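User: Hey, quick favor. My workstation is busy. Could you predict this chain's structure for me?
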Amino acid sequence: MIIKRSISEIPSFIAGDATVLKEIFHPDKEQLPFNYSLAHAELLPGQSSYPHTLEGRSELYVFLQGFGQATVGEEEVAVKAGDLVWVPPNTTQFVKNTGSENLVFLCIVDPPWKQEAEEVLSK
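Assistant: No problem, here it is.
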């Protein structure tokens, strides 16, 4: 079975952490046989996501476009297209767009993201 998606056709929404999000795959919604969720995220120039944690879930950011800064726990790192950043479970995290174009990245959450597992720490 082939499942094909076009990111341009997936509706976007503002997530609890203030990123513009498109949920690409989530096994709870489509009965897919894997144990992670995949989303496409964007931040406008100068915008930051809100600090948040994911209880019992790790996250992998895959940066596709732009320049930014990822904060994981007490550590900060500059990011650009082609970079990957892993976030351990239960760790405060947020991303800031420091460039002049949209910062675009994929978010892989394992096990799959659930609203009740996300705690937004400040807005």
